[in-house]
Write a structure and sequence with these properties.
single chain
């Protein structure tokens, strides 16, 4: 059994964030400026290691050591790539891949192909502005395939299942939108991706779908259920992302952790029953 943890890399400076939020911005700013919202709410939370830059290899070495020492086998990095290029890539490209101890833990990519909205911070008023659309053109996906095979899959620490590099897609419906909502064209693109992976010397690709993003497209008639889409497109596995997508927290300000855990265990059982992979 492998234990993998998602890693959201917004705790370093990125050119997009700097252009939008201003000089020196990263998500640590939200942590530092957090305010208590009810009596007894402990904010701000101060990290024991301080507000460190995750794009620094020495900082990432501490994270790798802490994870590996406590039973984590892999980091699955939230990996962003839009039609106009990458986002939040420095944590992985500069931090993890240059860390002296990165052989201690595996890593993989979860293509976070969702719309990037102006929610840092969210003001709760109206619809947040769309900054970067998650839907990408077919030619962008072709470039993504070539890039991940060359830059990441070949790395000795890349996570593989039965020799097949693990690659996950966050919003399946958004991915299909990039092919005009055409399931046949989407399946052909996935098949082409697999061919590229095999040509690079791997047995195949292990393609994962995050079931939070599995929904039917508006007007979709050829597929009756989302689980059919998984089979038609040839995914190897399904998973989920974060507990808050599935568990309700009905009691403000404090809800039971155990209750949230049980909600997610129920989700796992339901997914095992519904999905053929």
């Amino acid at each position: 059994m492998n234990i993998a943890a998602y890693y959201f890399p917004n705790y370093h400076q990125d050119r997009r964030n700097l252009s939008f939020h201003g000089e020196d911005w990263d998500e640590w700013k939200l942590v530092r400026e957090a305010k208590p919202r009810f009596p007894g709410h402990q904010q701000p939370r101060i990290p024991l290691w301080g507000y460190e830059d995750e794009a620094n290899p020495k900082v990432m070495e501490k994270k790798i050591a802490a994870a590996a020492d406590h039973g984590i086998d892999a980091f699955i990095f939230d990996w962003y790539y839009y039609d106009d290029g990458p986002f939040l890539e420095r944590c992985l490209d500069e931090g993890f891949m240059n860390a002296d101890n990165n052989e201690r833990i595996k890593f993989a990519l979860m293509w976070a192909n969702h719309d990037w909205l102006d929610i840092h911070p969210a003001d709760g008023e109206g619809e947040p502005a769309l900054l970067y659309p998650g839907k990408v053109r077919p030619e962008t996906f072709e470039h993504i395939c070539d890039s991940v095979i060359e830059r990441y899959f070949q790395h000795p620490s890349y996570w593989k299942i039965n020799g097949c590099p693990y690659f996950s897609i966050y919003e399946l419906f958004r991915f299909i939108e990039g092919f005009g909502g055409d399931l046949r064209e989407t399946a052909e693109a996935i098949s082409h991706f697999r061919s590229k992976v095999r040509d690079a010397g791997f047995p195949d690709l292990h393609l994962n779908a995050v079931i939070w993003g599995v929904q039917l497209l508006p007007g979709e008639k050829s597929v009756k259920k989302p689980e059919e889409m998984i089979s038609l497109l040839g995914f190897d596995s399904v998973t989920s992302y974060v507990w808050v997508h599935h568990a309700q927290l009905p009691n403000f300000p404090i809800s039971s952790y155990r209750s949230a855990m049980l909600d997610n265990l129920a989700l796992w059982n339901d997914a095992e029953r519904r999905f053929p992979v």
